[in-house]
Amino acid sequence: MLFLILAALTLQVIILVSVNAAAFSGPNAGRLSALVWLTVAVTLITCVLYILAFLHLSRLSPGLLLFVLSLLGSGFQLSAVATRTFSARQIRFGAWVVLLNLLVFYLLNTLA
């Protein structure tokens, strides 16, 4: 399961590096759009699996909030790509939200 978090973190970093204001108007627009869709899919799968795992615990874990916020950030990215506005600011903001929340969870999980 930790592999999914590392995959989502890596994809979010790639999104942060490769998305800029002119990225969706060039020849690589289709490839970048597919990369954002892949990133959203991996993030959604990771978050849903961890949320379901947290809901089966006897008490609520604070890690549940981190994955709900990651879903929110992924929703920002999804809305930018699904509506075909391709707002670089919205995609990057969603990537930052997901990246920070998953990074906090990963660090807390490995240090505990």
From TrEMBL:
Keywords carried by this UniProt record: Membrane, Transmembrane, Transmembrane helix
Q: Where are the transmembrane segments?
A: 35-57, 64-87, 93-111
Protein name (database record): Uncharacterized protein
> Which species is the source of this protein?
Deinococcus irradiatisoli
